[in-house]
């Protein structure tokens, strides 16, 4: 095995083992007693249920990750990349079409491998803990829609990227970056009105005291509110959420119906104030710019390692190709992606603190955010005492106790 193979093998194993260690430490950390902050929100039965849910979901995630890395190593060291390449070359002669089929076949194989875990998670684990509301027909229809969207949206993008790197010369990465960025922006613009409604029904919030309270708050902070929508999340899960999506004329705030059913008006406005805080602090713009920069860096690195003979040798591939370069580079990129994800998670947690601060300092019922967060943690069976290593690797939001401490500081 050459140096490239050793780097990929080592980083894949290291990241996998680090996640296993983080999961085990997280389980041990969860055995602490109920934090005093949550007494009166949780009883002992509810807290015990949250701990059992964490243990069950962690076991499933570890099983899925273990099987995934074992299958990857078996496919790699048994010459699977070369075998698939030989089959595709025999079937198809066009380089770009060959690449779409090659990468598509790998994607389909990965989806098939993940499917049993998704079914078990939804209809066994989530059902056992009272979350699942999805019927088999809804699950199958969602899966079908996702596949169709992957083909209709992902196919042309993959075709374009492969075409640029096949025929675009030294500046191919610049052209690919530009087109990919424009497509991503267009997708974010149309997703709230054309894509997300394929999976959930978005209903304008009906007239009443809640809508009045939200509009009054939005006016008080000069937020141009185009629409407040209720999502029929209860068709699929008992979990609750709220989010801000889109930009320009298509930006909207969405509330799960499960959130509305279980929270007071003050709590709901406080949650909306948090989402508006992301907009006011330019977190959405920040995320878009970071994604653009990251993609540019990724495409540049891809151009550097394109058709690298040693990289192909590490995976037992005989003939060079742009499409196989793309697959192999995605594996070589693992250590960069791992470190980048840690930084992005840290930045996301900082942004959540800022959005909390904005909510409690601009809304007169700011203390209601504390109650809303506590209720959400109980209804979603959140882990109240996560281990710091697990937080560093996986949390886009700060641990709830840390958020509560910061909120109390902002209110004092």
The run of helices and strands is HHHHHHEHEEEHHHHHHHHH
List unreliable stretches of 5+ residues: none
Query: What is the strand arrangement across the widest sheet?
Result: 1-2-4-3
Query: With helices defined by DSSP (H or I, 4 residues minimum), what is the helix count?
Result: 16
Describe the main β-sheet briefly: 4 strands, mixed
InterPro entries: CAXX_Prtase_1 (IPR027057), Peptidase_M48 (IPR001915), Peptidase_M48_N (IPR032456)
Membrane topology: Multi-pass membrane protein
Keywords: Endoplasmic reticulum, Hydrolase, Membrane, Metal-binding, Metalloprotease, Protease, Transmembrane, Transmembrane helix, Zinc
Organism: Prosthecochloris vibrioformis (Chlorobium vibrioforme)
Search tags:
4 strands, metalloendopeptidase activity, 412 residues, 16 helices, metal ion binding, CAXX_Prtase_1, mainly alpha, metal-binding, metalloprotease, single chain
Describe the protein's architecture and organization:
It is a single chain. Helix 2 (44-77) runs antiparallel to helix 4 (95-128). The mean pLDDT is 90. The chain has 412 residues and is mainly α. Strands 1-2-4-3 form a four-stranded mixed β-sheet. The chain has helices spanning 3-29, 44-77, 80-91, 95-128, 136-167, 172-195, 209-220, 257-262, 265-280, 283-305, 309-314, 322-332, 334-362, 368-379, 388-394, 400-411, and strands at residues 202-204, 228-231, 242-245, 252-256. The chain contains 16 helices and four strands. Helix content is 72%, strand content 4%. The protein has a domain at 3-198 and 289-346.
